[in-house]
């Protein structure tokens, strides 16, 4: 997820339709913006699983030209051809090499700009819009950024082979396109918020970041929906914030990620919350009747602040050992999770880590997802139930991932035949998902609603 953090300083009404109601507050759950991408690309790793145009799963057929892109039907293939006709023969020519996603997206933008799309307007209110060149490129920042410059050089190399020198804009212009893509690209997410592609949204790129956002970006296919999850008192884009990154991280890590990716420092309330930073790295008071978090980040105190129990040096050492053990395994499992590794981390954490310890929550999250994938529903349910309070604590009550985790817990209870517990979880999920996705979203319509219906039918009979 990425975008521009220096939006135009224009005040206007987002709810304004006819000039009336211009000062009306925005209610949580309302849609602030719906937009199609200026350019987008499906993750190449998913190209045989999802339609390259609508990004939906299902029966696909391969483009007979390039044998690279897959479509769900004639209609999508026809609509995609507008962009694909410039790249189809080039993809064929470069095969069996696979063009990296970023290079593919840059190429699509280049071809689109060649067709005059620099005049395309992405409206973010009735009469305010951005064109591609209005997006921030962060040219000077990128030039100083070795990692980005290496990436850019590799993309240039690929593009030279892929679209050829004749199609390449000059170096500065190419870097401008690259920078705009890096800074303003959104991760396109499936209904369960997994990244399936990258898209450039001209209007939505106006929205700033906060680690405690009042709006979320969700997707229907490639279409982005910006939805308010809090009441926003003044209809002004400068007061609307989405999270560019996963906020379930230490403030220092969030800051580093934002700086590295977007070249800014976040100064939101969550980033200044020292109490939260301590809680994320807290051990559990050894007095089993107490349960208070004992802080580690700013030096472990020798006594529990709640009950006064002594915290021995051995206990602190043990906590630090388990913490490095967990950190190492969480890092190793970024690509692929192993349930037995999660279980051994959780065993070591037991009685030592506070339930709100971030590493503990991340371990539970991995164990939960992996157990679901393995069909181990009784175990998954246990992890889910331990995980939810942590997600609530750090994501808050109105976060899509809280809603989705609640829904998964409910679904597991349905599988296990515990319909009363399922209904409770699903109703909690409904409360969140109504705000974050809305009742017309496919997640609500074809997942949550049928599950709730099943529960109601089962509980009546
Ligand atoms: Zn399709
Ligand atoms: Zn093709
Ligand atoms: Zn922040
Ligand atoms: Zn205590």
List descriptors.
461 residues, mainly alpha, Serine Threonine Protein Phosphatase 5, Tetratricopeptide repeat, three-stranded antiparallel β-sheet
Task: Report on the architecture of this protein.
This protein is mainly alpha-helical and 461 residues long. It has 2 domains: 38-262, no CATH class; 311-460, Tetratricopeptide repeat domain (Serine Threonine Protein Phosphatase 5, Tetratricopeptide repeat). The protein is built from 14 helices and 14 strands. It has helices at residues 74-94, 101-114, 139-144, 146-162, 171-184, 251-262, 274-280, 313-332, 339-349, 358-373, 377-395, 400-415, 419-436, 442-460; strands at 31-35, 39-42, 61-62, 70-71, 122-123, 129-130, 185-189, 195-200, 208-209, 215-220, 223-228, 241-242, 283-284, 293-294. The strands form 6 sheets. The protein has a 3-stranded antiparallel beta sheet with strand order 1-11-10, with no helix packed on it. α2 (101-114) packs across α4, α8 (313-332) crosses α10 (358-373) and α10 runs antiparallel to α11. The radius of gyration is 24 Å and the shape is globular. The relative contact order is 0.10. Residues 1-23 have low confidence and may be disordered.
